[in-house]
Amino acid sequence: MKKIIYITLIWLAVISMVTACRKMEAPYKQYVVTGGLVYPGKAIAVAKSGKNRVQIVWPKGVDKSVVKAKLYWNSFADSIIVDVAAIQGDTIKVMVEDLDEKNYTFVIRTFDAQGNMSVPVEVNGGSFGDRYQSQLLTRPVNSTLINAAGKLTINWGGADVANGAYASEVKYTDVSGTVKTEVFPVIIDTKEVKTTEITDMLANTNYQFRTIFRPDSLSIDKFYTTFSDGGLFSIDKRDWKVVSFSSEHPGGENAAVNVIDGTEHTRWHACAGCSSYPHWVVIDMGAPRILTQFGVWRTDYAMPEGDNRGPNKFEFFTSVDNVSWVSQGAFDFDRNLNGEQRYLLPNSPKARYFKFVGTQGPESYMVLGELSAYGL
Q1: Chain Cα centroid distance, residue 208
Q2: What is the pLDDT of residue 201?
Q3: Both 192 and 263 in a single domain?
Protein backbone atom coordinates (compact mmCIF):
# COMPACT_ATOMS: atom_id res chain seq x y z
CA MET A 1 0.00 0.00 0.00
CA LYS A 2 2.80 2.42 0.87
CA LYS A 3 4.43 1.63 -2.48
CA ILE A 4 1.26 2.55 -4.43
CA ILE A 5 0.95 5.86 -2.54
CA TYR A 6 4.62 6.65 -3.23
CA ILE A 7 4.27 6.03 -7.01
CA THR A 8 1.08 8.12 -7.11
CA LEU A 9 2.85 11.07 -5.47
CA ILE A 10 5.70 10.89 -7.99
CA TRP A 11 3.24 11.00 -10.94
CA LEU A 12 1.41 13.96 -9.45
CA ALA A 13 4.71 15.84 -9.13
CA VAL A 14 5.65 15.16 -12.77
CA ILE A 15 2.21 16.29 -14.03
CA SER A 16 2.49 19.51 -11.99
CA MET A 17 5.92 20.31 -13.46
CA VAL A 18 4.78 19.73 -17.06
CA THR A 19 1.72 21.92 -16.56
CA ALA A 20 3.86 24.70 -15.09
CA CYS A 21 6.32 24.59 -18.03
CA ARG A 22 3.50 24.83 -20.56
CA LYS A 23 2.16 27.91 -18.82
CA MET A 24 5.66 29.50 -18.96
CA GLU A 25 6.02 28.74 -22.72
CA ALA A 26 2.70 30.34 -23.64
CA PRO A 27 3.93 34.05 -23.77
CA TYR A 28 6.88 33.16 -26.08
CA LYS A 29 5.09 31.00 -28.68
CA GLN A 30 4.36 34.01 -30.94
CA TYR A 31 8.13 34.61 -31.35
CA VAL A 32 9.11 31.11 -32.35
CA VAL A 33 9.82 30.61 -36.11
CA THR A 34 8.85 27.18 -37.34
CA GLY A 35 11.90 25.45 -38.77
CA GLY A 36 14.27 28.16 -37.36
CA LEU A 37 15.70 31.40 -38.83
CA VAL A 38 17.49 31.33 -42.23
CA TYR A 39 20.65 33.40 -42.72
CA PRO A 40 22.00 33.66 -46.30
CA GLY A 41 25.77 33.53 -46.74
CA LYS A 42 27.40 36.79 -45.69
CA ALA A 43 29.77 38.88 -47.82
CA ILE A 44 33.47 38.52 -46.99
CA ALA A 45 34.52 41.86 -48.46
CA VAL A 46 37.46 44.24 -48.82
CA ALA A 47 37.38 47.96 -49.59
CA LYS A 48 39.74 49.39 -52.23
CA SER A 49 40.46 53.09 -51.98
CA GLY A 50 40.21 55.44 -54.94
CA LYS A 51 40.01 59.04 -56.07
CA ASN A 52 36.75 60.27 -54.52
CA ARG A 53 35.44 56.72 -54.70
CA VAL A 54 35.74 53.32 -53.04
CA GLN A 55 35.29 49.88 -54.58
CA ILE A 56 33.84 47.08 -52.43
CA VAL A 57 34.79 43.58 -53.58
CA TRP A 58 33.76 40.16 -52.34
CA PRO A 59 33.48 36.61 -53.75
CA LYS A 60 30.01 35.26 -54.51
CA GLY A 61 30.63 32.37 -52.17
CA VAL A 62 29.04 28.94 -52.10
CA ASP A 63 25.53 30.03 -51.02
CA LYS A 64 23.62 30.03 -54.32
CA SER A 65 20.44 31.21 -52.61
CA VAL A 66 21.78 34.79 -52.40
CA VAL A 67 20.05 36.91 -55.06
CA LYS A 68 20.86 40.45 -53.98
CA ALA A 69 22.87 42.53 -51.54
CA LYS A 70 22.52 45.94 -50.02
CA LEU A 71 25.46 48.18 -49.24
CA TYR A 72 25.05 51.00 -46.70
CA TRP A 73 27.31 53.90 -45.69
CA ASN A 74 27.06 57.25 -43.94
CA SER A 75 25.34 55.57 -40.98
CA PHE A 76 22.77 53.89 -43.28
CA ALA A 77 21.79 57.23 -44.85
CA ASP A 78 23.09 56.08 -48.26
CA SER A 79 22.83 52.68 -49.89
CA ILE A 80 23.16 50.69 -53.10
CA ILE A 81 21.21 47.57 -54.04
CA VAL A 82 23.24 44.96 -55.92
CA ASP A 83 21.59 42.37 -58.19
CA VAL A 84 23.86 39.47 -57.26
CA ALA A 85 21.96 36.94 -59.37
CA ALA A 86 22.64 38.96 -62.54
CA ILE A 87 26.41 39.22 -62.01
CA GLN A 88 28.53 36.90 -64.14
CA GLY A 89 31.68 35.41 -62.69
CA ASP A 90 32.74 34.65 -59.17
CA THR A 91 33.46 38.17 -57.90
CA ILE A 92 31.15 41.01 -56.96
CA LYS A 93 32.49 44.54 -57.42
CA VAL A 94 30.54 47.57 -56.26
CA MET A 95 31.82 51.09 -57.01
CA VAL A 96 30.71 53.85 -54.66
CA GLU A 97 31.26 57.15 -56.50
CA ASP A 98 31.31 60.87 -55.63
CA LEU A 99 32.58 60.43 -52.10
CA ASP A 100 34.03 63.13 -49.90
CA GLU A 101 37.67 62.65 -48.96
CA LYS A 102 37.54 60.69 -45.69
CA ASN A 103 37.30 57.20 -44.19
CA TYR A 104 34.04 55.28 -44.41
CA THR A 105 32.43 52.29 -42.72
CA PHE A 106 30.36 50.23 -45.16
CA VAL A 107 27.77 47.67 -44.02
CA ILE A 108 26.75 44.80 -46.31
CA ARG A 109 23.75 42.48 -46.02
CA THR A 110 22.89 39.73 -48.50
CA PHE A 111 19.33 38.47 -49.22
CA ASP A 112 17.77 35.31 -50.62
CA ALA A 113 14.62 35.13 -52.75
CA GLN A 114 12.42 34.77 -49.64
CA GLY A 115 13.75 38.00 -48.17
CA ASN A 116 15.90 36.36 -45.54
CA MET A 117 18.97 38.48 -44.83
CA SER A 118 22.46 37.69 -43.66
CA VAL A 119 24.18 38.98 -40.59
CA PRO A 120 25.66 42.42 -41.30
CA VAL A 121 29.29 42.72 -42.36
CA GLU A 122 31.32 45.90 -41.80
CA VAL A 123 34.28 46.91 -43.97
CA ASN A 124 36.33 50.11 -43.73
CA GLY A 125 37.73 52.06 -46.67
CA GLY A 126 39.03 55.51 -47.53
CA SER A 127 38.37 57.97 -50.33
CA PHE A 128 41.25 60.24 -51.39
CA GLY A 129 41.11 63.55 -53.25
CA ASP A 130 42.54 67.05 -53.50
CA ARG A 131 43.86 67.13 -49.94
CA TYR A 132 45.92 64.00 -50.50
CA GLN A 133 47.03 65.19 -53.94
CA SER A 134 48.27 68.52 -52.56
CA GLN A 135 50.80 66.89 -50.23
CA LEU A 136 52.48 64.67 -52.82
CA LEU A 137 56.14 65.45 -53.56
CA THR A 138 57.98 64.62 -56.77
CA ARG A 139 60.97 62.35 -56.22
CA PRO A 140 63.95 64.61 -56.93
CA VAL A 141 66.71 63.92 -59.44
CA ASN A 142 70.10 64.34 -57.77
CA SER A 143 72.04 64.20 -61.05
CA THR A 144 71.82 63.01 -64.63
CA LEU A 145 74.86 61.52 -66.37
CA ILE A 146 75.16 60.99 -70.13
CA ASN A 147 77.96 59.11 -71.85
CA ALA A 148 79.32 59.20 -75.41
CA ALA A 149 77.07 56.32 -76.49
CA GLY A 150 73.99 58.27 -75.37
CA LYS A 151 73.18 56.19 -72.29
CA LEU A 152 71.42 58.34 -69.73
CA THR A 153 71.80 57.49 -66.04
CA ILE A 154 69.37 59.22 -63.67
CA ASN A 155 70.45 59.30 -60.04
CA TRP A 156 67.35 59.67 -57.87
CA GLY A 157 66.94 61.31 -54.50
CA GLY A 158 64.70 59.93 -51.75
CA ALA A 159 61.11 59.00 -52.61
CA ASP A 160 58.11 59.79 -50.40
CA VAL A 161 57.26 56.12 -49.87
CA ALA A 162 55.43 56.89 -46.61
CA ASN A 163 52.82 58.75 -48.66
CA GLY A 164 52.56 56.00 -51.27
CA ALA A 165 55.23 56.85 -53.88
CA TYR A 166 55.80 53.64 -55.80
CA ALA A 167 57.14 54.57 -59.27
CA SER A 168 58.79 57.30 -61.34
CA GLU A 169 57.51 58.04 -64.82
CA VAL A 170 60.00 59.38 -67.39
CA LYS A 171 58.90 60.88 -70.71
CA TYR A 172 61.44 61.39 -73.49
CA THR A 173 61.96 61.27 -77.26
CA ASP A 174 63.66 58.11 -78.50
CA VAL A 175 66.15 57.80 -81.37
CA SER A 176 63.32 57.30 -83.88
CA GLY A 177 61.70 60.59 -82.86
CA THR A 178 58.83 58.95 -80.98
CA VAL A 179 57.74 60.33 -77.62
CA LYS A 180 58.10 57.47 -75.17
CA THR A 181 57.08 56.94 -71.54
CA GLU A 182 58.78 54.53 -69.17
CA VAL A 183 57.77 53.67 -65.61
CA PHE A 184 60.48 52.72 -63.12
CA PRO A 185 59.63 51.26 -59.68
CA VAL A 186 60.82 53.04 -56.56
CA ILE A 187 61.39 49.79 -54.65
CA ILE A 188 62.43 46.34 -55.89
CA ASP A 189 62.75 43.45 -53.43
CA THR A 190 62.37 45.86 -50.46
CA LYS A 191 65.32 47.98 -51.66
CA GLU A 192 64.98 51.53 -52.93
CA VAL A 193 66.12 51.88 -56.54
CA LYS A 194 68.67 54.71 -56.75
CA THR A 195 69.45 54.80 -60.49
CA THR A 196 67.58 54.47 -63.76
CA GLU A 197 69.12 53.95 -67.21
CA ILE A 198 67.72 55.01 -70.59
CA THR A 199 69.65 53.84 -73.64
CA ASP A 200 67.53 55.04 -76.58
CA MET A 201 67.03 58.77 -75.98
CA LEU A 202 67.48 61.07 -78.96
CA ALA A 203 70.78 62.95 -78.75
CA ASN A 204 70.74 66.55 -77.49
CA THR A 205 67.18 66.31 -76.15
CA ASN A 206 65.91 66.39 -72.58
CA TYR A 207 63.41 64.36 -70.58
CA GLN A 208 60.58 65.01 -68.13
CA PHE A 209 59.73 63.06 -65.00
CA ARG A 210 57.03 62.77 -62.36
CA THR A 211 56.17 60.49 -59.44
CA ILE A 212 53.25 58.05 -59.27
CA PHE A 213 51.49 57.46 -55.94
CA ARG A 214 49.01 54.94 -54.58
CA PRO A 215 47.49 55.69 -51.13
CA ASP A 216 47.70 51.98 -50.31
CA SER A 217 48.48 48.68 -52.01
CA LEU A 218 44.81 48.00 -52.85
CA SER A 219 44.08 51.41 -54.34
CA ILE A 220 42.25 51.32 -57.68
CA ASP A 221 43.45 54.80 -58.69
CA LYS A 222 46.88 56.37 -59.14
CA PHE A 223 47.87 59.91 -58.28
CA TYR A 224 50.54 61.85 -60.17
CA THR A 225 52.72 64.85 -59.49
CA THR A 226 53.21 67.36 -62.31
CA PHE A 227 56.02 66.77 -64.81
CA SER A 228 59.41 68.37 -64.12
CA ASP A 229 62.18 68.93 -66.66
CA GLY A 230 65.23 66.70 -66.43
CA GLY A 231 67.51 69.69 -66.09
CA LEU A 232 71.25 69.71 -66.54
CA PHE A 233 73.17 66.60 -67.70
CA SER A 234 76.63 65.91 -66.40
CA ILE A 235 78.72 64.65 -69.31
CA ASP A 236 80.43 61.38 -68.39
CA LYS A 237 84.19 61.95 -68.20
CA ARG A 238 84.94 58.25 -68.53
CA ASP A 239 84.60 58.77 -72.31
CA TRP A 240 86.91 61.81 -72.39
CA LYS A 241 90.43 61.95 -73.71
CA VAL A 242 93.13 64.58 -73.50
CA VAL A 243 93.99 65.30 -77.13
CA SER A 244 96.78 67.80 -76.53
CA PHE A 245 98.17 70.16 -73.90
CA SER A 246 100.72 72.93 -73.57
CA SER A 247 103.06 71.28 -71.01
CA GLU A 248 103.20 69.16 -67.88
CA HIS A 249 105.75 68.79 -65.10
CA PRO A 250 107.54 65.42 -64.94
CA GLY A 251 105.81 62.60 -63.04
CA GLY A 252 102.37 61.02 -63.33
CA GLU A 253 101.06 63.06 -60.42
CA ASN A 254 101.47 66.17 -62.61
CA ALA A 255 99.97 64.83 -65.86
CA ALA A 256 97.43 66.83 -67.85
CA VAL A 257 95.11 63.80 -67.94
CA ASN A 258 94.55 64.25 -64.19
CA VAL A 259 92.32 67.21 -64.97
CA ILE A 260 89.56 64.83 -66.22
CA ASP A 261 89.92 61.90 -63.78
CA GLY A 262 86.82 62.79 -61.76
CA THR A 263 88.43 64.28 -58.66
CA GLU A 264 89.98 67.57 -57.61
CA HIS A 265 92.35 65.67 -55.31
CA THR A 266 94.78 65.12 -58.22
CA ARG A 267 96.41 67.83 -60.33
CA TRP A 268 97.67 68.98 -63.67
CA HIS A 269 100.92 70.83 -63.03
CA ALA A 270 102.31 72.76 -66.02
CA CYS A 271 106.04 72.54 -66.38
CA ALA A 272 107.70 74.61 -63.66
CA GLY A 273 110.69 76.60 -64.90
CA CYS A 274 110.06 75.67 -68.53
CA SER A 275 106.60 77.11 -69.33
CA SER A 276 104.63 80.31 -69.11
CA TYR A 277 101.11 81.55 -69.77
CA PRO A 278 98.97 80.72 -71.67
CA HIS A 279 98.56 77.11 -70.46
CA TRP A 280 96.00 74.99 -72.31
CA VAL A 281 94.49 71.54 -72.61
CA VAL A 282 92.19 70.14 -75.34
CA ILE A 283 89.50 67.56 -74.40
CA ASP A 284 87.64 65.16 -76.71
CA MET A 285 84.26 64.29 -75.09
CA GLY A 286 83.73 61.36 -77.46
CA ALA A 287 80.45 62.66 -78.95
CA PRO A 288 78.90 66.02 -79.86
CA ARG A 289 77.02 67.66 -77.00
CA ILE A 290 75.14 70.90 -76.48
CA LEU A 291 77.12 72.59 -73.72
CA THR A 292 75.34 74.93 -71.32
CA GLN A 293 77.79 75.06 -68.41
CA PHE A 294 81.25 73.95 -67.42
CA GLY A 295 83.06 73.64 -64.10
CA VAL A 296 86.58 74.31 -62.88
CA TRP A 297 88.25 73.25 -59.60
CA ARG A 298 91.54 74.13 -58.03
CA THR A 299 93.39 71.14 -56.58
CA ASP A 300 94.14 70.21 -52.98
CA TYR A 301 96.76 67.63 -53.95
CA ALA A 302 99.67 67.83 -51.45
CA MET A 303 98.00 70.95 -50.03
CA PRO A 304 94.96 69.99 -47.90
CA GLU A 305 93.89 73.62 -47.58
CA GLY A 306 93.99 74.05 -51.36
CA ASP A 307 96.60 75.02 -53.95
CA ASN A 308 96.30 78.70 -54.96
CA ARG A 309 98.63 78.44 -57.96
CA GLY A 310 95.73 78.19 -60.36
CA PRO A 311 94.87 80.87 -62.94
CA ASN A 312 93.20 84.19 -62.22
CA LYS A 313 91.71 84.31 -65.70
CA PHE A 314 91.03 81.80 -68.46
CA GLU A 315 89.28 81.45 -71.82
CA PHE A 316 87.00 78.62 -72.94
CA PHE A 317 86.82 77.42 -76.59
CA THR A 318 84.63 74.83 -78.34
CA SER A 319 84.94 72.91 -81.61
CA VAL A 320 83.06 70.22 -83.52
CA ASP A 321 86.17 68.93 -85.34
CA ASN A 322 89.26 69.96 -83.34
CA VAL A 323 90.16 72.26 -86.23
CA SER A 324 87.89 75.29 -86.12
CA TRP A 325 87.54 76.86 -82.67
CA VAL A 326 85.01 79.32 -81.26
CA SER A 327 85.68 81.32 -78.10
CA GLN A 328 82.83 81.10 -75.62
CA GLY A 329 84.25 83.89 -73.48
CA ALA A 330 86.89 84.96 -70.99
CA PHE A 331 86.24 84.24 -67.32
CA ASP A 332 87.62 85.02 -63.88
CA PHE A 333 88.65 82.18 -61.57
CA ASP A 334 88.97 82.43 -57.79
CA ARG A 335 92.15 80.44 -57.20
CA ASN A 336 91.73 80.82 -53.42
CA LEU A 337 88.40 78.94 -53.34
CA ASN A 338 87.94 75.17 -52.94
CA GLY A 339 85.18 73.32 -54.74
CA GLU A 340 83.67 73.58 -58.20
CA GLN A 341 83.17 76.99 -59.79
CA ARG A 342 80.44 76.86 -62.46
CA TYR A 343 80.26 79.03 -65.59
CA LEU A 344 77.31 79.50 -67.96
CA LEU A 345 77.65 79.27 -71.73
CA PRO A 346 74.87 81.58 -72.99
CA ASN A 347 75.28 80.46 -76.62
CA SER A 348 74.80 76.76 -75.75
CA PRO A 349 77.29 75.65 -78.41
CA LYS A 350 77.22 72.17 -79.91
CA ALA A 351 80.70 70.71 -79.63
CA ARG A 352 82.66 67.50 -79.33
CA TYR A 353 85.90 69.21 -78.24
CA PHE A 354 86.64 71.98 -75.79
CA LYS A 355 89.83 73.84 -74.92
CA PHE A 356 90.60 75.35 -71.54
CA VAL A 357 93.22 78.12 -71.75
CA GLY A 358 94.63 79.67 -68.59
CA THR A 359 95.66 83.21 -69.55
CA GLN A 360 96.90 84.78 -66.31
CA GLY A 361 98.09 83.61 -62.89
CA PRO A 362 100.48 84.28 -59.99
CA GLU A 363 103.29 82.06 -61.31
CA SER A 364 104.73 81.46 -64.75
CA TYR A 365 103.37 77.88 -64.58
CA MET A 366 99.80 76.81 -63.62
CA VAL A 367 98.33 74.14 -61.33
CA LEU A 368 94.72 72.94 -61.78
CA GLY A 369 92.49 70.27 -60.22
CA GLU A 370 89.54 69.30 -62.44
CA LEU A 371 87.33 70.27 -65.39
CA SER A 372 83.69 69.28 -66.01
CA ALA A 373 81.06 70.00 -68.65
CA TYR A 374 77.24 70.03 -68.54
CA GLY A 375 74.52 70.16 -71.15
CA LEU A 376 72.48 67.81 -73.33
Answers
A1: 14
A2: 97
A3: no
pLDDT at 121: 96
Domain boundary residue, one of 116, 132, 148:
132
3-class DSSP state of 97: coil
Let me know whether 169 and 193 are in one domain: yes
Task: List the alpha helices (DSSP H) in 26-163.
Answer: 130-134
Looking at residue 20, its pLDDT comes to 46
Do 356 and 241 share a structural domain? yes
Together in a domain, 279 and 202:
no
In a domain? residue 38: no
Give yes or no for residue 14 having a pLDDT over 80: no
The reply to whether 291 and 172 lie within a common domain is no
Structural domain contains residue 337:
yes
Rounded to whole angstroms, how far apart are CA atoms 214 and 140?
18
**138-144 own/partner pairs: CB under 8 Å, 24+ apart:** 138/209, 138/210, 138/211, 138/225, 138/226, 138/228, 139/165, 139/168, 139/186, 139/209, 139/211, 141/209, 141/228, 141/230, 141/231, 143/234, 144/230, 144/231, 144/232, 144/233, 144/234
Q: Indicate whether 25 pLDDT > 60.
A: no
What gap in Å lies between CA 261 and CA 229, rounded to an integer?
Answer: 29
Task: Kindly report the CATH number assigned to the domain that includes residue 127.
Answer: 2.60.40.10
Burial class (CB in 10 A: 0-12, 13-18, 19+), 236: buried
Q: Which domain holds residue 217?
A: 135-231
Q: With 70 as the cut, is the pLDDT of residue 364 above it? A: yes
Q: Is residue 37 part of a domain?
A: no
3 state SS of 1: coil
pLDDT digit string (tens) for 203-258? 999 999 999 999 999 999 999 999 999 999 999 999 999 999 999 999 999 999 99
Amino acid identity at 29? K
Q: How many domains does the chain have?
A: 4
Strand 279-297 vs strand 241-245: parallel, antiparallel, or unpaired?
antiparallel
Enter the pTM of the model: 0.83
